[in-house]
Amino acid sequence: MATTTSNNVQVIRSAERHFKDAGWLQTYWHFSFADYDDPENVHFGPLRVFNDDVVRPGGGFDMHPHRDMEIITYVISGRLEHRDHLGNRGVVHPGEVQVMSAGKGIVHAEFNASRTEPVRLLQIWVLPRTRGMKPHWDQRQFTPDQRAGRLLPVVTSDESDVAPNALRIDQDTTIYVSSLKAGQSVDHTSPAAGRKAYLFVIDGAVTLNGDTALSAGDQARVTLDADPRLSIRAEQDAELILLDLPAE
């Protein structure tokens, strides 16, 4: 895995990601997953999986089990249907976020809800603080207006009123999404130095901290050793997702 590193920022370009074409699924795996095994690229703090998937019409993942993992799905385009053994069923639309806390065990299936259009989604796995908890599933719609020109928190463990509409997970992690017009900037201050930030550019182009250029498909893994602040400026209209993570 080729990378560019400077000033506590590790950049991995879109073309440097591991790609797999399974016919019904085209996917970029940001960390070791399934038959992609890289002992130097297993996790980033508690972030264990970040998959950028496109599922063709009629394709999907059959019923399969998970346990002790916080699984977050963000749909970019198309529609993704979820079913699980607890009786939960829902269709996740663009801009909608799904959280599945696998806990002591859950069996589920996910598939493209359209017979004509592909679905693009990000699937993110975060290691939980507590093992063996009761499984939980939820989803919530967030509109383009809500994320326009700002970092919108959509997933968090924070029980305060800072992010009252965000879905909850069992980890000291907050996930933000943002839609920026060219020339717009957003700033983020992590709760403390020593934490980590993971930035992925879904579309467009941005500059991170004034000197790191990122385009669609690029990711930046930031270690916030001394300064917990980040600044993101859109050089083109851009869609992005940012994870604020504990050190371990």
Account of the 3D structure:
The protein has one helix and 23 strands. The protein is mainly beta. It has one domain (4-245): Jelly Rolls (Sandwich). The strands form four sheets. Strands 1-2-21-18-23-16-14-15 form an eight-stranded mixed sheet. A seven-stranded antiparallel sheet has the order 3-4-5-12-7-10-13, with no helix packed on it. The chain has a four-stranded antiparallel sheet with strand order 6-11-8-9, with no helix packed on it. The chain is globular and about 45 Å long. The model has no long low-confidence stretch (mean pLDDT 94).
What brief labels describe this structure?
single chain; 248 residues; mainly beta; Jelly Rolls; eight-stranded mixed β-sheet; seven-stranded antiparallel β-sheet; 1 helix; 23 strands
- Global outline: globular
Estimate what percentage of residues fall within beta strands.
over 45%
Order of helices and strands: EEEEEEEEEEEEEHEEEEEEEEEE
Label the structural class. Answer: mainly beta
Number of strands: 23
> How many individual helices?
1
Query: What is the CATH fold-level name?
Result: Jelly Rolls
Mean of all residue-level pLDDT scores: 94
- Strand arrangement within the widest β-sheet reads 1-2-21-18-23-16-14-15
Rounded Rg: 17 Å
- Largest β sheet strand count, sense and barrel closure: 8 strands, mixed
Q: Which percent range fits the helix content?
A: under 10%
Ends apart, CA distance between termini: 22 Å
